[in-house]
Amino acid sequence: MWEKVVVTGAAGFIGGHLCHELVSRGVGEIVGIDSLRSGDWSRTPANVVKIEKDISLFSEKEWDKQLEGADVLFHLAAEKYNSSKTTPDKVMAVNVIATEHLFRAAARANVTRTVFTSSLYAYGSMGPESMLESDVAAPTTLYGASKLMGEGILRSIDREIGLSWNVARLFFIFGPHQHAEGGYKSVIMNNFERIITGESPTIFGDGNQSLDYVYISDCVSALMKMADSSQDKEIVNVSTGMAISVNDLTAFMLEISNSTLQAQYQSADWTHGSIRCGSPVEIEKKFNWHPKKNLGKGLEDVYRWLKEKN
């Protein structure tokens, strides 16, 4: 296993789970970097070297120090422009400018593999067709555009200096320890929290909008495979290929929680009519990755964790 791994966004939902997996695999040194704007070190194992700093504030010398001797870089840190804590300038500063500085430092340090978490929002698609890596990306949000730019930066630096990389376009990742301070909570987290406190779950519009959910352990497995594989310079979806409507998801959640509450419908939002689903064919073929946790078992885990937490 690797001697040293650097994880940006290590105190986040995915980053915390990833760090636990790295510890379990016996990685020698794990350096976790997080601004804690939305992260929480309680998610991260105690033996991870924790650096609390915004990645947009790192100097070239500081990046060189942190990446010295690193085998793998997982770049998960990002600003999402649906959070009350951020601005368009901050999205660009972190997701584009700081990301370029980081990838350039990884090239200088001869990091063996860089894994970058991009997003379904890089596509800009609202369906109904499943999103394919061969689709022309046309992001409609600043966040999505910044993620697509991050992918382009990898290619640019690779061409200029040389860099080994893979990109994971994440779909809707869910699981225990997921929450959002000052931002948009996922449908799963928001409605389970409401059900637990005796409030009716809410559905916007007709509830037929559908999403492709991936359990957190499967997401981490994908990232690990992309770091450890001989496959290089690949951009793949981390998705299941199956989308569930918010109506069916909410009914499933009410069943799992043995609740007699009824969903309350509210005015439609920007997701009305959308089917956001990704094809997993490429990641299955190139990285031999298949999701193992079905949605029902994953929802049970989230419900159990929230009950214990409350």
Q: Which segments are poorly predicted (pLDDT under 50) over 5 or more consecutive residues?
A: none
| Proportion in β-strands | 15-25%
CATH architectural grouping of the largest domain: 3-Layer(aba) Sandwich
- Apparent shape: globular
Name the helicity range: 25-40%
- Secondary-structure-derived class: alpha/beta
Spatial strand order of the main sheet: 3-2-1-4-5-6-11
* First and last CA, distance: 38 Å
How does the major sheet shape up?
Answer: 7 strands, parallel
- Name of the CATH first level of the largest domain: Alpha Beta
**Number of helical stretches of at least 4 residues:** 9
CATH topology-level fold name of the largest domain: Rossmann fold
Averaged pLDDT: 95
- CA-based gyration radius: 19 Å
**Element-level helix/strand string:** EHEEHEHEHEEHEEEHEEHEEHH
The overall strand count is 14
Identify the CATH homologous superfamily of the largest domain: NAD(P)-binding Rossmann-like Domain
Number of domains: 2
Quick rundown:
By secondary structure, the protein is α/β, with parallel strands linked by helices.
Quickly list its features.
globular; alpha/beta; 3-stranded mixed sheet; 18% strand; UDP-galactose 4-epimerase, domain 1; Rossmann fold; 9 helices
